[in-house]
Predict the structure.
Amino acid sequence: MKRPSLDLLALATVLAGAADLAACRSDDYLGPAPRLSASHMVLGTSTVPPPVHNEVGIDPVSTGIDIPEGAEVTVTVSGLLHYSLNQNRPPCSPQPPVQPPGGLTDVGPAGFPEELYPEWLCTGHGVVAWIPERNAGVDFQPRDPSAGTVSGRLTGPGTLWVKRFPGFPGSCSNPDGGFPYEPDYFVSGTQTLTVEVVDPSLGIEVVCTGSGAPRGSSVSCEARPQPAGQTLVVTGWTFTSTAGDVVTRQTSDVTWTGQLVVDGRIDVTGTCCRAPGLGERERHGDRTRLDAENGQSQG
């Protein structure tokens, strides 16, 4: 999905039922003019499930993110997993629990180095992302277990899947003592996968007018298909302020109009641009950012 984000110096007072949002105005309601810029198209995001404990992995699961034929994408995974000692482990056995590889208790998407446990063949709890029908995988870099973010390239078509191999050995079994099986460590944390198209010319483009006006003026944004001439169906717009206030408008309108009042982001959703062999794709538009530092328009 392609997600346009507008860092607006305003709250959208014209979204459905949002006439009262003018109360969000502040003393610096009038300010310098915004600047527009654009970034890559986001096909979608997905949470990669964490393993339950150190000795198990995660079976293959679909992210639901479809990559069009011929589209080159960057797959990025961010977040840390935390390994906490199982409190039932010490009473299970007088032997001390193993130490996580490298003594790390917070590990990034690369996981633990596999070479530390060659007898397990594949280990580490690292994120594995691939397109099964083509056996095309992502070579994530860097391979540093402490890195909070890794990324790699992949080319469509296909649906992206993820899995994890087991982490590292370490457990106790003492049925007579009331502990049939206790892993050494439980795992928690969130790791999020994002797929961005390297070529931003595909999908939904968001074009905004009103740049150069002071804070408090109106800005109008229009969703356009890329390439031009493709069928575009908008399903809604959402404004999210930096304070976390959300205003959603379910509509087929291809335009959005708002008043520049507070910082925030606007997203448009819809279907656009038939990809050969994959049909219609749900996309979000290009990310567009409004900045109050100067009145220049970019992108």
Remarks:
- Confidence is low (pLDDT under 50) at residues 1-40, 274-299.
- The helical segments are 89-92.
- The chain has two domains: 8-39+200-291, 44-197.
- The domain at 8-39+200-291 is CATH 2.60.40 (Immunoglobulin-like).
